[in-house]
Predict the structure.
Amino acid sequence: MTRVPVALSCSVCGERNYKTTRVQRRSDKPLELKKFCKKCNRHTIHRESK
């Protein structure tokens, strides 16, 4: 399986704060992680954006 680069953006302010990789699958839902946002100054859900 191949790994593809993805960017994680904050669900509150939309800022792209993190870059990571994940395994490419066909019917996968987007990656969601709870991470710290520097702009919001708190932990928020960060979703995958391409």
The chain has a mean pLDDT of 91. The longest strand covers residues 3-10.
